[in-house]
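Mods, move this if it's the wrong board.
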Amino acid sequence: MTQQTNKVAIVTGASRGIGAAVAERLAWDGFTVVVNYSGQAAPAEAVVRKIEEAGGRALAALADVSDPQAVRRLFDTAETALGGADILVNNAGIMTLSSLADTEDAAFDRQIAVNLKGTFNTLREAAKRLRNGGRIINFSSSVVGLLQPTYGVYAATKAAVDAMTSILAKELRGRDITVNAVAPGPTATDLFLHGKSQELVDRLARLAPLERLGEPTDIAAAVSFLAGPDGSWINGQILRANGGII
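Not the wrong board. C-alpha cells:
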C-alpha cells in the first residue's frame, strides 16, 4: 500500500474483470474507491472486502450508468460519504457482436445506452462536480483502430467516447483536470473468454507482438499512471494498452 491520500476515485463497473482490477490498483495507490456496480451487490462487496483487507478504503455504490438520475446519486454518495470525488474511471460497458445487417434494435439501443449515453452521463456529472486537479479516465477500445467485422456498433460507441474525451479535455480548461482514455486490446477476463474456443483464444493471444493476452492488471497499471502524479501532463489522449496489436 502506498501513502494514503485524501483523494476519492469513482470506478464504474468495478465489481469484476478490468473494473475490479482498476479499483484494487487505485486503492493500492492510496485512493479511497467507490466501487460502482449495476447488478448484484455481492461481487462489488467482495471487491470492497479485498481492498479493505489489504489496508485500503472503499465502498460499494449501486448505479446503472445509463440512468442520469442514478449517476447523480452515485456522485451524491461520494460527496455525502467521502466529501467529494477527484477521479472518475468510466469502465462500465457492454459488448454484443453481430454484423451490421444482423444487429437487432435492442442490441444497438443497449450498447448506445450503456457505452455512449452512460459515459456521457458520468462525464457531464464529473464536469460539474469533480474537484479541481482531478482526473477523468474513460474506457475506449483498440477495436476503434482494428475495425473488425461484427464489432460495428461497439466500435462506434467507443469512437464516440474518443471524441468526447478530446473535447471535454478542452472544455475543462483552467481547472487542472485531465481527460484521457485507455483503449485495451484482447484482455483475459471472464467476459472476454466466455464462449471462445481455446484455439481462438490462442490465436488472439498471438496477434500482438508480445504474443499474449492482456491481463486486467496491465490495464489497471495504465489507469494508475493516468490517475497519478506522473500522468499530470497527459491530456486529451487515447492510450492503447494492447501489447502492440495495432
